[in-house]
Amino acid sequence: MRPLTLRRMLWTCGLLCVTLLAVVVLALRLGAVPFPLADLGQNILLLITGHPEKVSTDFRLIMVDIRLPRILLGILVGAALSVAGASFQALLRNPLADPYVLGVSSGSALGVILALLLAPAIPLMTPLGAFLGAVATIAAVYLMGRREGHLDSGTLLLAGIVSASFLSAVIMFLMTTLASRDLRGIAFWLMGDLSTTLPTSLLWTLLIGFILAAGAIFTTASDLNLLLAGEREAMHLGVEVTRVKLVVYISASLLTALAVSVSGAIGYVGLLVPHVMRLLFGSDYRLLIPTSAIGGAIAVVLADTLARTIVAPTELPVGAMTAMVGAPMFIYLLRRRLA
Amino acid sequence: MNRHAMMESKLRRRGIFFLALSFAVFLASPLARAARQSSSQGTLPGGSALREVTDETGRKVSIPLEIRRIVSLAPNVTETLFALGLGDRVVGDTNFCDYPPEAKNRPHVGGPIDPSIEQIAALHPDLVVATRAINRLPTVRSLEQVGIPVYATDPRSVEQMLASTEGLSRLLGADAAGQALVSSMRRRLAEVQTRLAGVPPTSVFFVVWDSPTVSTGNDTFIADALKYAGARSIIDSSLDWPTVSMEEVVRQQPEYVIFYSATPAEKESEVAELRHRRVWSDLEALRQGRVVVLSEAIARPAPSLVDAIEDLAHTLRPERFGARSLSSAGGH
Amino acid sequence: MNAAESMAAQSTSTPEARPRSGVRVNVQQASFAHVTRRQSAPVFTLEATSFQARERELVAILGPNASGKSTLLRLIAGSIPPLSGRVELDGFETSRLETRTRAQRIAMVQQESPLVFPVRAGDYVLQGRHPHGRSLWFESEEDYAIAANALAQVGAEHLRDRWMHEISGGEKQRIVLARALAQQPLLLLLDEPTLHLDIGAQVELLARLRRLAEENRYTVIIVTHELSLAAEFADQVVLLHRGKCLRVGTPAEVYQRELLEQVFEAPLDIESGPEGRPRVIIQGRRELRSNLSSGSSSG
Q1: Is any Cβ of chain A less than 8 angstroms from the Cβ of C128?
Q2: By the CB < 8 Å criterion, does B6 face chain C?
Q3: ipTM entry
Q4: For chain C, what are the domain ranges?
Q5: CA distance linking residue B5 with residue C138, whole number of Å
Q6: Which residues on chain C are in Cβ contact (under 8 Å) with B4?
Q7: Which CATH class is domain A11-335?
Q8: Of B1, B10, B13, the CB nearest to C140
Q9: Domain B201-321's class?
């Protein structure tokens, strides 16, 4: 057993960051509009050295306005979903848990539908509606998931599954009875889609939200290790079980809400990235949380790049890509009896 | 473990976070500055001054006075632009734009639902024309976010299609062509109305899709076109494209069943196969061959819709139209 | 300085407040009841019980099923507060201690929950160091040494790199015990530790506990219904029956035939063995004596 030291953690995260950087460069390079690497390098250099006016308009338009924000969005969403997935797997003591198992994505979808119906003209109504729907679902599931005043994993899981089913049924009902022209985009959203360009202020909000929520979860990382070995045992080892569960529940749900409100329900990332990271680097949550974050970012940026380029110029929704790669990978992992 | 060492490692942990944060900030800030500059500009790559118009969905759009480069995001828009003689201004369209044939040669930007914003941007359009029925609002928003104006049409009836055509012609400075086209279309529609005067409408069942069975509702342009052609859809629904129950259709026993396809010949064999399907086989119209297969023109709210209306009217009431040959465009 | 010395330094110095010298665990008239919403009268799972335990002592809480043994153990562990009375460890009420502080002093060994993800035995034992660190901390060299030592004390160094789900029940028991030892507690509590073990493993475990109590100056309290084991290894026995504490004392004092037959409802015979420890003999072919069987009500 190799001891987990700060050095090992920094090396691992550093290695993953380098991989992420390589993937980002690849994503910038590829796309419906090709860009030679030399141009790319030259323009980035111009930008960083503070000469934005000298940058070619094409580069600015495509790279800066369209591709780079999309890549950054992919990084944030991937990191958020993976950390949330790893956290729920610990909270619910279930390796099959993913960020959506507690109904957050269904609640978000309903929020988006209601926003499209009631106020489609207001910009940013979709992310706002999605976020509000998610928050409402988080609160409802929390209230249902309590037993004797504190969160019980089994009850929480049941409450979440039931909520997800119920909300999906409501969504199905609305989609078939209402005028389809207003709800056309919902199918895309349900699959997970990064193609909508968002204002930078929203990206900043996402980043800050991610740091706060993921940071909160990270501080409970060693408690989570103990919780996984049993709640009673964890309590006897000094873990404040009720507090930890509440912090993790709220933070992980918030991460999911943030991701889903801007990109729809991208599947398989929150479920699989933590498992792959466990395979590679072990189950210690102090290492798993950061590696899942970076691993998730890599996964989503790769998937999105594929989605943008495989049948260019048509763009597939990124969720279709993650499903196509994720499902076989899931089966493979199952057969390795990891889950 | 002593307190000093614990604090030290806590600080190191914070250090990791700050490293990550500063990386993001480092990358984002000069780019954010550049982005702000480019998207808030009052002039577009075309360089000309702007005017504000209201599109057919009520949105206010700032577009350049001179529009030389247009990207179309829907087949009916593409067709309309070409019909107005503006085909050479169309610099890009979707994979699905195949009418007129020249449209297939234009650079494709993807599908109407999932176009590539990058690809559109790389074509440097002065204006993108979309339509509410097919394109998504997020696509429109993304384009606006990068400074490309989008004008949306929304023709929901035959009359609106005519008005939309005229509106587009005025927007794009092709007033003369537009007026000529629209007057010609109105003349032909009036002719059909005259010939059908006094004839009761034929009850029809219009098949948008056969499994599940989808037909047209009351408020679509197809329903309107059917009326112009002397037909009446037996489906009464406020939804645009309702899924219908075949038992109900059989109960009403429409006089004709109408299909449409890009390749009408292939559709004939599909229709033959439908004759044997359960419940469909109870349709008298199907059994007796009272079937019409129209071209895709019926499904596009664009000038060729008038051709489709004429075709349908001829087929349903041939006695009213004498020995006139069927119009060549979009024939069976 | 270790935890006991620091606590002693902090305790008040009035003679009444300081416990009798050497007494570590002081249970005074502690009772517990489940309060259910619909019934007005609470159901007592444990009525007022008192006993004391010193360091280097092994105490057995003895009784048949549903006699309140686990409740008493949980009261001592501080996981539940007593309804009446006090439960003190070195003068501090266990239920009032902060979770982390309590975990630094009290280690509990129970039937462990199933593991969700694979974990190595060595890492499992290392978890015992958690109460002594802070949330984002990484284990130090010292922590690793303590964990290795704990493994050595249970004779399981060779299991260090093995996966927990791959080792046998008895070996797992030892790892769980090692984790408790890694906590470096003052008090070691075990709830029915011999349940799934064969007789050889049972004796080995109790002998080990005795030795550990002696070497590491623990107070060990185990909950059991194994009469022979308690007789052989315990310094003190607390006999419980249907929530009542019937007797507290050395095995010789507690093991009276009529008392044990009444409590365990089985025909027994008690003999005296070496070092004054009683031997329990099961009289399987004899019916319980008639005046006893008519006197005892059905449970």
Answers
A1: yes
A2: yes
A3: 0.82
A4: 3-254
A5: 11
A6: none
A7: mainly alpha
A8: B1
A9: alpha beta
